Each structure stands twice: as C-alpha cells, then as structure tokens.
Amino acid sequence: MASDLTITSTYRMNSGYHIPVLGYGVYKSPKEICNTIVQQAVKAGYRHVDSAAGYYNEAECAEGLLNSGIPREQLFFTSKVNPGKINYADAKKIIDATIKNINVPGTQGLKYVDLMLLHAPFGGKENRLGAWQALVEGVEEGKIRSIGVSNYGVKHLDELENWMKKTEAEKGKGKGGVLSVNQVELHPWLARPDLDEWCSKRGVLLEAFSPLARSYRLEEPVLAEMGKKYGKTPAQVLIRWSLQKVCLLSHKADMSVANMCGKGFVPLPKSVTHERIIENADVYDFKLSEDDMGKLHTGVYEPSEPNWDPTTAE
User: Fold this and answer.
1) Which residues are catalytically annotated?
2) DSSP 241
3) Can you say how many angstroms the Cα of residue 210 is from the centroid of all Cα atoms in its chain?
4) Which has more confidence, 104 or 36?
5) Which residues contact 1 (CB under 8 A, 6 or more apart)?
6) pTM for the full model?
7) 206: enclosing H helix or E strand
C-alpha cells in the first residue's frame, strides 16, 4: 500500500515484472549532462530512469546507469516510440535504435529495455495498433520486457483493449500483448478520474509525468500550508500526493473500484539540479492525512499546457 512505501519499493506490473514506484524523468535534459545527473539520481536512491527516443539522450542515460555501480537487475530503464513515428515500420526501427543506444560500446550494456511505451496516440487507429504490434514483437524477441502507452485517453485504451482481445481470440493467449502502463500528466489539477478508474480495474499502472505541474502550481496556498505542516516543500507534497493517489478513490461513490486499487501513481519528477534531485526523492518520511488528500481533490481538469492534451487525439 502507498502508506508503506520506501525509496526501494516496487509495483508488480501486468507483465509480471516490477517497476520502482519513483522514477527520474529526463525530458529536455541535455545529453551532455545525462551521464552525470543519472548517476546523481541513482546515488540519491532512484533506480528508474524515464527517457524516450525523442529526448535524444538514451545512450547517455544508459551510460549513467551503467556507471552507477548498481547491478543491472536493480535498474529500470524506460523509453518511448516518438509521437511522430506511431506506426508499425517506424516503431520497429526505433526499438532497434534504442537497443543500440543503450548497449554502450565498451560496456556490458543494459541489454534490454525494461519498459517501452508509445509516446502518444497519434497517427490514427491503424497506425496506433500497428505500432503496438511492433512493441509486442519486441517483447517476443527479448528486446523489451514490458510495454505500455503514454498520453492515451479512455477511447484509445478501449480501442487497444478490443484489438488485444480480438488478436488473442484469433492467435492465442498473449499474442495481443500485455498492457502494463499508461503514462500521462497527473497532479491534483489533472487527476483524470476516468483514466484512474479504467486503469485501476485492469491493473494497469498510471505513471505521472509533470507531477509538479511543471512548477506552475508551487505557489498555491494549499501547498504552502501543507509544506509548513509536514516540514516539506510544495514539490515534495505533490510527489507524495502521487504516491498516495489510492486515497482519492475513497471520494468516489463506486467503492468497488476503490477496493480494487492498492497502488498509487508512479511519479516521474525531473530536475537537473543536484539538490532538487535529492529533495524529490526525500518523500518517504511523512504521509499526507486523508483530510489533506481531500483538500487536494480539486475536481478540475487543467493540463499544464492548455493547448496540448494528446488524450483527446482522434
């Protein structure tokens, strides 16, 4: 349960593999510093790095993980198929390119991708499903352990689930792939209860990118109040909210859903500042009360970038 989490905690995904409950995001992190900052993150306790083909820093992040001195089996590396390459042929090429990037010459390499996602539901239905097929084949070929999606709305998830069921009926169990993760923007001003319910019912983990709402909300009075109460920063309060997300379902009328979900979000805070990397991992010595979780149940739908919400894509 969320209340018992530590820096070393993991969740079991539908694939059967485990994912660390706290990840380190490297979106827009310059590749020139990724080796260093990833090592700093690992030293601070992170074991999970969230990269993407479109971040252009896969190799440097892999190098940082490999240089950390931590055994490969304790590390977790995520990448994603570029939003503009969501189709079968391009996804196959990107998977192979990622494998090449993370197997740094002169090292043992990461060997495989722990989690590969489709970065956005772009390209239309046929291309989305084709790209998913490429991920399934990547698992079958031993290049990827677990697969998932990013920025998928309920309609995209329904579309994928229907294809998976149809493919399994025609070709056999597992041939449609196993959906383990949906990574979307999540924070108190964008809690996405529809996605929360859909994923919770199916055991699909929700990863929270921009868990700090891109810092736009750090001056909110409610965060200042809680920070003072718990002796924590507003950023730490928001990360703790993600970890305790399960409490939010107690505010829903459908308690059958609440009873099914014992897992919080998997937050992916990002920073290139050493002190903040450490600060963002220092969230396991306090717990937000049920009343405070309720205060952060805003009920609003406000993406950090109002004109960019891929979950509504056609």
Assistant:
1) 55
2) H
3) 10
4) 36
5) 246, 262
6) 0.94
7) strand 205-209
Residue 3 zone, left/alpha/beta (φ > 0; ψ -120 to 50; rest): alpha
Q: Are 269 and 29 in contact (CB under 8 A)?
A: no
Q: Measured between alpha carbons, how far is 17 from 145 in angstroms, rounded to an integer?
A: 8
pLDDT at 308: 86
H/E element, 169: helix 154-171
pLDDT band at residue 45 using 50, 70 and 90 as cut-offs: very high
* DSSP secondary structure string for all residues of the chain: -GGG--TT-EEE-TTS-EEESS-EE-TT--HHHHHHHHHHHHHHT--EEE--GGGT-HHHHHHHHHTT---GGG-EEEEEE-GGG-SHHHHHHHHHHHHHHHS-TTS----SEEEEEE--S-S-HHHHHHHHHHHHHHHHTTSEEEEEEES--HHHHHHHHHHHHHHHHHH-TTTT--EEEEEEE-BTTB--HHHHHHHHHHTPEEEEESTTGGGTTTT-HHHHHHHHHHT--HHHHHHHHHHTGGGGGGGSS-HHHHHH-----EE--B-S-HHHHHHHH--SS----HHHHHHT----B--SSTT--GGG--
Tell me which amino acid residue 180 is.
S
Q: Exposed e or buried b for every residue in 206-230, given b needs 16+ CB within 10 A?
A: bbbbbbbbeeebbebeebeebbeeb
User: 81 has which bridge partners?
Assistant: 118
